Amino acid sequence: MQISLEEVQRVARDSRAQQTGTAPLEPVPEPFVACKEADQQLARELAHFLAQTPDIRNGRVEEVVNHLSQTEEPLPASEVAVSIMRRLIADNLTE
Length: 95
What we know:
By secondary structure, this protein is mainly alpha-helical. The chain is built from four helices and no strands. It has helices spanning 5-19, 36-52, 58-70, 77-93.
């Protein structure tokens, strides 16, 4: 789903209008900052997860190739890569 720049600007403008002069209903906590060790542990877990991920999922590649061969104008490679990564992450979140 793509949102136009005008829509983003309208939402930002509306949001700013709602925020002026109104105090929060609850105290706003300070942002959470993880310790360096936790960040390093998360980085190790992500690296391990990515190392275990196969380089190619043949079924997905065939789907993409078939879809791209049927479209009239090609998609930029960066959009295809982003879509593949989103799908990979979503698939692993639901497992």
